[in-house]
Design brief:
seven-stranded antiparallel sheet; 17 helices
Length: 547
């Protein structure tokens, strides 16, 4: 009886389409044409077309010569093109019927001596964000958890069941890496090109947000004892002594305006004596500005007084342990103090929030220098508070939020079982690392043109009917109905007595025209500072079209 020998399947190689580029990584193209996929498939079928295809290879670079990909908002798209061939003599093209599926992954690259890749992962219905690919077994493992889970089956049902149950006890077993599908070129294209070609869009923008908290100080360069963190703090929060202005006086909300605005008009509510000290050149002006920075740091950056978390409470405890001496009054011999927490809480309400109804505390004489252990404990509490504040304001990291991150693309094909061998996955090499350009960066694409109305045209204004409406609440209508001069001077107009809401309709073309005029004015003004007009504005004449 004759025996049929099963021949082991030969290896499959992946890389850039041969005859277009070299290398084992996908070819990254940058296209701005409208129907770019059909154009690419057409170009790859001829020698002349392949030359044009190579000319569209992604080539933009940063000043550090790092490859740079652009975003769709910049009217540029990136396509990964891959060829699969048999790694045997003659290197024939792979029969697409052997391929179960194909795809690509975009991985973030971390460089710490050696490159470490991270994949955009999800697991058990949660988006886990960027995680090292080592968590799924390495860069060459299948990105799909179910395929990894069943890849090691023995063929014995009971043993395979126990192996699966054991694997499911590990947290990372069901991690799935995000995959972008790649599509095989139509048979006619593959035949004309003499290649089995796959293509897929490379994503450079995403609205996905990870469900894990972002890391505040990933590089560990902004800790409580770091130079950057200490230098950022106002000297009092570093634990150093600091004089306080107008000691012994009762705080007034108008002090903020007097100390920060370059005005020669004394604000309402500020006494002549205080005005002389807070105006330009006054002896208390710098000190109050420093105190305002301290208050804004505590209130805004550290959420010291509105926070209810254990971290915020720990910070308030550190502030409460600091005693601020008060100025001795006439006839007093016993020193008075106030806790820093109580004074700063009230000072925020008066000077930062400008609350006219808030209790107005007395200004202490100075902030004392703290013992080293107390200063260190205060900085630690501040560091924890700002890390918590960061998480509150950035609750979920986006996929491409890190402007300095670098990425690579890897492509793969999943081969069907053949010759008695199980299904397997074959990976390409990684592309050269690249960054994603910010949305505001120019891409070289033609600018979008917007036609403005000619307001001198007879009858035009009558034709520009209102086509957008705003619902205006009474309080805002009262504000807008006041004296424009008062608004320019920062004065709140008196209550106009309007108690009903309003619906105000406008013409969008007129709004656009007004915005263009205001933009032109401010561009010219800011050009005195930034010297940017030669780069951001180009105006050219064009002839009037015939009737």
């Amino acid at each position: 009886m004759a025996r049929t020998l099963m021949q082991a399947p030969h290896d499959v190689a992946l890389g850039a389409p041969r005859g277009v580029a070299t290398g084992g990584a996908p070819l990254l193209l940058q296209r701005s044409d409208g129907d770019f996929i059909d154009a690419v498939l057409d170009e790859i079928t001829t020698a002349e077309g392949r030359a044009r295809l190579l000319a569209t290879r992604a080539a933009a670079r940063t000043q550090r010569q790092v490859l740079k990909l652009l975003q769709p908002i910049q009217r540029q798209h990136h396509l990964a093109v891959l060829e699969a061939w048999c790694d045997t003599p003659g290197t024939p093209r792979v029969d697409p019927a052997r391929v179960e599926s194909a795809g690509l992954v975009v991985r973030r690259v971390r460089r710490a001596g050696s490159a470490t890749e991270e994949g955009w992962m999800r697991s058990r219905g949660r988006l886990r964000g960027w995680l090292p690919v080592a968590r799924i077994g390495g860069a060459a493992r299948d990105p799909a958890s179910q395929l990894r889970l069943h890849s090691g089956h023995t063929g014995v049902a009971d043993i395979d069941h126990e192996l699966v149950q054991l694997a499911l006890q590990r947290e990372d077993t069901l991690l799935d890496e995000h995959v972008v599908p790649m599509f095989v070129a139509p048979p006619g294209v593959c035949k004309a090109a003499g290649k089995t070609v796959y293509y897929g869009l490379v994503p450079t923008v995403s609205s996905e947000l990870a469900e894990t908290a972002p890391v505040f100080d990933e590089a560990n360069t902004f800790g409580p004892e770091s130079a950057d963190f200490r230098n950022h703090l106002v000297q009092a929060l570093r634990g150093e002594a600091m004089d306080l202005p107008l000691d012994g006086e009762t705080l007034h909300p108008a002090w903020t305006e007097a100390a920060e605005l370059a005005t020669t008009v004394r604000p309402t509510g500020v006494s002549i004596d205080h005005w002389n000290q807070l105006r330009l050149g006054g002896g208390a002006r710098t000190g109050l500005q420093r105190l305002l920075r301290l208050l804004r740091q505590l209130d805004g950056e550290f959420n010291a007084f509105a926070g209810t978390s254990p971290v915020a409470q720990a910070l308030r405890q550190q502030l409460a342990a600091i005693a601020l001496p008060l100025k001795l009054r006439v006839g007093e011999t016993v020193a008075r103090t106030v806790s820093a927490e109580a004074f700063l809480r009230q000072a925020v309400q008066v000077l930062v929030q400008r609350d006219e109804q808030a209790s107005r505390p007395e200004m202490p004489a100075r902030w004392p220098a703290l013992p080293s252990h107390q200063a260190q404990a205060l900085r630690l509490a501040l560091s924890r508070a700002v890390a918590e504040r960061f998480v509150q304001l950035n609750p979920a990291p986006g996929r491409f939020d890190d402007a300095n991150a670098q990425y690579v693309v890897r492509a793969f094909v999943r081969l069907k079982p053949e010759c008695g061998c199980p299904a397997r996955i074959v990976w390409s090499e990684a592309t050269e690392p690249f960054v994603i350009a910010p949305w505001f960066e120019g891409s070289g694409a033609p600018p979008v043109r917007i036609n403005l109305p000619d307001i001198t045209e007879p009858g035009l204004l009558r034709s520009l009917k209102p086509n957008v409406s705003f619902t205006v609440p009474p309080a805002l209508q009262n504000l807008l109905s006041g004296n424009p001069k008062d608004l320019m001077e920062g004065k709140k107009p008196p209550d106009g007595g309007i108690t009903i809401g309003w619906i105000c309709s406008f013409s969008i073309p007129i709004i656009t025209l007004c915005a263009f005029i205001v933009l032109s004015i401010f561009l010219s003004l800011f050009d005195l500072i930034f010297k940017w007009m030669a780069f951001i504005k180009i105006c050219i004449p064009f002839p009037k079209r015939g009737e």
